[in-house]
Specification:
Layout: E1 8-9, E2 14-17, H1 30-46, H2 50-64, H3 67-74, H4 79-86, H5 98-105, E3 110-114, H6 119-129, E4 137-139, H7 152-162, E5 169-173, H8 180-184, E6 188-192, E7 204-206, H9 209-215, E8 217-218
Parallel strand pairs: 1-8, 2-3, 2-5, 3-4, 5-6, 6-7
Helix pairs in contact: 1-2, 2-3, 5-9
Length: about 220
């Protein structure tokens, strides 16, 4: 793992980005609001107290990678009811990020999103950040048949959908565990928003995504 002022990414022609807590600062409060919406949903569904449902929520996240598959394993519920509720937020923490837009614009090749969020949430976040026009496609939780990262089958579906070569792909994520299988597939892995991780499956750490992208060495285009 390298915290590098100038990462060598000249082999990369597919730029794969997680969305939440990756394309915006992880401490801006949006994900805390989403987790609270999940807890509120579970309180209404189960009748349990908030402290109890937050323990259930944490268990599902640790076991399944997200709350939705745990919920569907235990309750007969249409997935869109849950997804629509938890993502029904104003996204007031987000605003157009011109510096990030410019940093992504310099990347040669395809820019893609790989998220455990819903299709609508992913599209709204990219629009609010002012970078939606940079992304060729979004692989969201519905694309993965409601199976979230880091499940290997979801990586397989994502790669088939986008037609990418993992050895020429750089994956940017805020979750270390979501990078384990990516590295096993020979992707170059970048842990975003952290600087204290030191694990073999992480190639680079990017405390600041925009600064990292601006400093990286990338393939020259004609």
């Amino acid at each position: 793992m390298t915290v590098s002022a100038r990462a060598d990414l000249r082999h990369v022609d597919a730029w794969l980005f997680d969305i939440d807590d990756t394309l915006y600062p992880h401490d801006n409060g949006l994900m805390a609001d989403i987790r609270q919406r999940i807890a509120d949903f579970l309180v209404r569904l189960t009748g349990k107290g908030e402290d109890e449902v937050k323990l259930i929520q944490r268990g599902w996240f640790e076991t399944h990678g997200a709350a939705l598959p745990g919920l569907l394993a235990e309750y007969d519920l249409a997935p869109h009811i849950f997804l629509d509720y938890v993502h029904d937020l104003p996204l007031h923490q987000l605003s157009p990020d011109a510096a990030l837009d410019a940093a992504i614009a310099r990347l040669p090749g395809r820019v893609l999103a790989f998220t455990n969020g819903s299709a609508n949430h992913a599209e709204r976040v990219l629009e609010k950040l002012g970078i939606a026009h940079r992304f060729e496609g979004i692989f969201h939780i519905q694309s993965g048949d409601l199976t979230p990262k880091p499940h290997p089958a979801t990586f397989d579906r994502m790669m088939a959908m986008f037609g990418i070569d993992p050895a020429q792909t750089c994956f940017f994520e805020d979750s270390s565990k979501n990078l384990i299988h990516a590295r096993a597939l020979s992707m170059t892995t970048v842990l975003v928003g952290r600087e204290d991780e030191n694990e073999a499956h992480i190639n680079y750490v990017a405390p600041d995504l925009t600064a990292f992208l601006n400093a990286a060495s990338v393939k020259e285009t004609a």
